Amino acid sequence: MEMKPRSRDIWVAVGVVSAPSHIRHRTVLRSWLSLPDSDAATLSLFAVRSGGAPQRVSESLIAEQREHEDMLLLPTVAWDETRLRGTVLTLAAWLEHAATHLRARFVAKVDDDLYLHAPRLASMLRALRPLGDHSYLGALAWHGWRPALWDACGFGWTATLSSSNLKREGCDKAQAEVAGPFPFAIGYLVVLSAPLVAAAVASPAYAAELARLRAFRPARRELGINEDVWLGSFLHRHLHSLPIAFVDLSSFEGIVDLGRGRRRAPDLMIPRSAVAVHVKSKEVGAFLAVHDLFTQRNGSAERCQPRQPRLSCGTGCPKISVNAYTISSDLGRIAAAEITPSSCQPEGSANGNASSVFCRVWLEPGGRPAYSVALQRFVQCGRGAGCKEPSRWASPGERHRVRCCSDSPLPGWPVRAGCSVWAESDGPLLGGCHLDKTFEEAASICRGAGARLCSADELRGGCARGTGCHGDRHLAWSGDRFPAADPPLQLPPCSVASVAPVDLAPLVRTDAMLQRVLGMFPDRGAGWGPAPAQTERPAHYVHHDASLVLKSPWSS
């Protein structure tokens, strides 16, 4: 479906790469697509391949576009293209459309597991406009590329590490040309200035490379081509004469990658003022949690000191003059900054382009208003009365005693009258007493014995009482994950924490149509007609003031 050229200027056009069958997930993603944009500075569209689609698929996509007016159907890309070519061809078609039909100063491509606050992205890009005409932004990493094989090789977070990995992996010894290492923006968020997009699309190498890709038949059928690495390699191989400003957002607190964060630390901080969150999951509950963080208002936000973004050039630019200011919006106060163009004089870069500059963005310390979202577990005493502290919802990182229950008999485990479970706190199967364990440690201990954590009712009812380790009067972990009832959400001031659990289900498109659509369309398979009703109990999270803390709730 060809779209007419846009008559108004916009700051950033965002293309969300989405497969034709992902109807259900597009409905969830419309949570952030519908965020208010008072300046009308953004345009967000789903880029969906549709070439040669069967009639039922084509009619479904056209009906969805007519209803929401947020889809760009790409007839030049086969609707059933696989991971092999589909992502590169879809990205290329989106860039061509943006260069031809959209009057945008920046063009972004995002994955469909990213939650994006597009108005804040536009504000951030306004602040970065002195960088020059040709800008390339994202969480930058480094890679090598073998053009003949359409293969990425030698990943590294720095140029030095990538160069070392190229040699270690033997990329330079393969019977194919190796380009790199070069910087590339990781695919969940890639932003290019409009002049850079125009230069890429107009390059003779662009059409030639895509034609070569369509004819490509790899020796390994399972090979998938990384569109983000390909784009970085294309800029490196064919546009190296342009003065490109590479802006690394990986240290910018407003861009949060949950996938990378879980490898670095058990908890990951997400400020309420974040620009984008790479959820790294397509689970509905995860998106609703982040959407809740972005849309809840904090009445005391004006009393919180905002942070200021700063830029640091990694090549030949020890100092940058920054004029920080604050932008008001319907969703709170957004920090932004202007950079003095003449303050940064680059001295060269790794790709041989003496006029390229590498920058890094981060936030200064400060009390930016935010909330915390953490999955809570219930801790309960081992007897109904005489507890030393009250039962409560607790963070999984706290340390408490371990008591295990089994629905079937285990050697040496007692069962109390009136109870239907066998319980133990000590003994050979458990390896002795466990007094101070986190929730995950406690659950693992019980699983190792062929059992589970007792429920709060089982602990409260005394079914695990008297099982050793002198634990009847102390709090022990239960397996309870969800609160029985949801008290009203109280938005706290910046210095006060709240432990009120929140049901996140109503926070995205609360109309009945959303629930109907979520039930009708699965994310995989044919999925083009009504399916049996699906109910998905939303995860419950807890809000605090300092930040959004995600402890991988959707994986526990």
From TrEMBL:
Gene Ontology biological-process annotations: protein O-linked glycosylation
Organism per entry: Emiliania huxleyi (strain CCMP1516)
Top-level taxon: Eukaryota
Coiled-coil regions listed in the entry: none
Name under which the protein is recorded: Hexosyltransferase
KW Transferase (keyword) present: yes
Topology in membrane: Single-pass type II membrane protein
UniProt subcellular location: Golgi apparatus membrane
InterPro entries: Glyco_trans_31
Alphabetical keyword list: Glycosyltransferase, Golgi apparatus, Membrane, Signal-anchor, Transferase, Transmembrane, Transmembrane helix
Gene Ontology CC: one annotated term: Golgi membrane
Classification lineage: Eukaryota, Haptista, Haptophyta, Prymnesiophyceae, Isochrysidales
Family note: Belongs to the glycosyltransferase 31 family.
Record GO terms (molecular function): hexosyltransferase activity
Main subcellular location of this protein, as a coarse class: Golgi
Gene3D superfamilies named among the record's database cross-references: 3.90.550.50
